[in-house]
Write a structure and sequence with these properties.
Elements (H helix, E strand, L loop, with lengths): L1 H8 L16 H134 L2 H22 L1
Length: 184
C-alpha cells in the first residue's frame, strides 16, 4: 500500500521529462492506467454509447409498439373467431335440433307408411284367402256334383229299362217345351 500512495503523492520520484521509462510496478501503474482508460472511454465513448443506447432503446420501443399492435390485432382476431364460433355453435345446435325433429318426423312417417302397407297386405291376404277358399269350395262342389251325377246316372241306368227310359225322356222334353213357351 505504501507504494501506491507514494506513486500519487511523490512527484519528485518520477523520472524527468527527458527520459522515458516503463514503470513495471503493477500495483503502482494499474490504478493510474485504469483511471486514464476509463476517463478516455467516458469522455470519447459517452456520445457513442449514448447513440448506441438510444438506438437500442428506439428498437426496443418500436418492437414493443409492434408487439402491442400485433397483440391488439390478435385479440381482435380472437374476438372475431369467438363470435364466429358462437354463431357456428348456434347453427350446429339448430341443425342438430332440426335434424332430430326431422329424424323423428321421418321415423313416424315411416312407421305410418309401414303400418298402412301391413294393413294393405293383410287385406290382400284376407281377400286371397277368401277367394282361394271360395275356389276350393267351388271345386269341391263341382267334384261332389259330378260324383252325384255319375252315381245318379249309374243308378238310373241300372234301374231303368228301355220303356221307363223313353217315358222319362218324353216327360223331360215336355217340361222343356213348356218352359220355352213361358219364356217366349
Amino acid at each position: 500500500m505504501k507504494n501506491i500512495t507514494n506513486s500519487f503523492v511523490s512527484v519528485g520520484h518520477w523520472p524527468s521529462a527527458g527520459s522515458f521509462e516503463f514503470n513495471t510496478d503493477i500495483l503502482a501503474t494499474n490504478p493510474i492506467n485504469l483511471s486514464v482508460v476509463l476517463g478516455v472511454l467516458i469522455f470519447f465513448g459517452k456520445g457513442v454509447l449514448n447513440d448506441l443506447l438510444d438506438k437500442r432503446k428506439q428498437r426496443i420501443l418500436s418492437t414493443i409498439r409492434n408487439s402491442e399492435e400485433l397483440r391488439r390485432g390478435a385479440i381482435e382476431q380472437l374476438e372475431r373467431a369467438r363470435v364466429r364460433l358462437r354463431k357456428v355453435e348456434i347453427e350446429a345446435d339448430e341443425y342438430r335440433t332440426n335434424g332430430y325433429f326431422e329424424i323423428e318426423r321421418e321415423k313416424v312417417n315411416l312407421i305410418n307408411a309401414t303400418c298402412k302397407s301391413l294393413e294393405r297386405l293383410e287385406n290382400y291376404k284376407n281377400e286371397t284367402l277368401f277367394f282361394e277358399k271360395q275356389r276350393a269350395i267351388n271345386q269341391v262342389r263341382q267334384q261332389v256334383l259330378q260324383q252325384a251325377l255319375q252315381r245318379a246316372l249309374g243308378t238310373l241306368n241300372s234301374c231303368l229299362n228301355s220303356e221307363l227310359h223313353l217315358r222319362t225322356i218324353s216327360a223331360n222334353i215336355g217340361i222343356l217345351g213348356s218352359v220355352e213357351e213361358i219364356t217366349d
